[in-house]
Amino acid sequence: MTAGRLIVWRHGRTEWNLQDKIQGQADIPLDDVGVAQARAAALRLASLAPTRLFSSDLQRAVATAGELAALTGLKIEYDEALREINVDDWAGMTMEELAAIHPEAAARIRSGEPQRRGTAGETVEEVAERFAPALARAVEHGEPSDTVVVTTHGLAARVGICLFLGIPKAHWPAFGGLSNCNWISLLPGRHGWRIEEWNAGSLPEPVMSDDPQR
């Protein structure tokens, strides 16, 4: 059996988000706006009656998940595989600063070519390969009535979900980033998991369609 809905939720805003700095796994807290975003989004997600709550162990994700835990009484289950990409010594730079110091690496990132972040960080492909199995673990023992919420980070969520869904890497750039405290909603269908909503900030609504998805 598997869960009936999977919500992958990005954390609220941090000061580094506001300053457009590369965060990676630097453990940056939510700012005041981020806390308010998490509180407001948690109210909406709580109405879906989530049954399990997973989170990255970085504090910006932990604090975001904590707002939903406080409303639902769910225990947060932590998984390091849900962390953001490791950017090593690039953490704290803006993309403009990175381009000035490492122009070739910045150009490869912008063009979508493989590029390890920092001296000893991760590639996008490596992030996806650790993230997608974490999603599979989160839903594998669920029931059709379950809603599982995974609180995480923008890049990791985007590429990890693409791999989880079996989307070829060449098409990953077609899936845009997540705004702070927005989420992706996935549903199980006849041929595997499918996207219900992407970069959503409001509750999913039933699809009235002649195309049966389940």
From TrEMBL:
Q: Which Gene3D superfamilies match?
A: Phosphoglycerate mutase-like
InterPro entries, sorted: His_Pase_superF_clade-1, His_PPase_superfam, PGM_Phosphatase
SUPFAM superfamilies given for it? Phosphoglycerate mutase-like
The record's section on PANTHER family has: BROAD-SPECIFICITY PHOSPHATASE YOR283W-RELATED, GLUCOSYL-3-PHOSPHOGLYCERATE PHOSPHATASE
Q: What is this protein called?
A: Phosphoglycerate mutase
Which species expresses this protein natively? Answer: Kribbella orskensis
Give the classification, highest ranks: Bacteria, Bacillati, Actinomycetota, Actinomycetes, Propionibacteriales
